[in-house]
Specification:
Number of strands: 2
Helix content: 40-55%
Largest sheet: 2 strands, antiparallel
Low-confidence stretches: none
Radius of gyration: 17 Å
Strand order of the largest sheet: 1-2
Shape: globular
Order of helices and strands: HEHHEHH
Structural class: mainly alpha
């Protein structure tokens, strides 16, 4: 959804405050996070990352076949979602 003050055809260079909006719209990231991703985001060993992944899954009551989303992980550990996505 484009804010009403933005008209189509306006170059992004003229809108420095809004350029972040356009970057978020074009950048794609994964919905789910894995233990390997957690290891890279938090700079942990693979086993510690698996433990943190399982703790968050247990907290949300996820079954073994269900995955943990990036937003759930960030909310559980109190991390800013933008920082987590940037490090994926």
């Amino acid at each position: 959804m484009v804010p009403p003050e933005i008209t189509y055809g306006m170059p992004i260079l003229c809108l420095p405050a809004i350029s972040q909006f356009y970057l978020r719209m074009t950048k794609k990231y994964r919905l789910c996070i894995s233990a390997k991703d957690i290891a890279s985001v938090l700079d942990l060993s693979p086993r510690q990352a698996q433990r943190k992944y399982q703790q968050a899954k247990d907290a949300y009551g996820k079954a073994s076949h269900q995955h943990l989303t990036v937003h759930e992980f960030a909310a559980y550990y109190g991390l800013p979602i933008e920082d987590v996505i940037a490090r994926l």
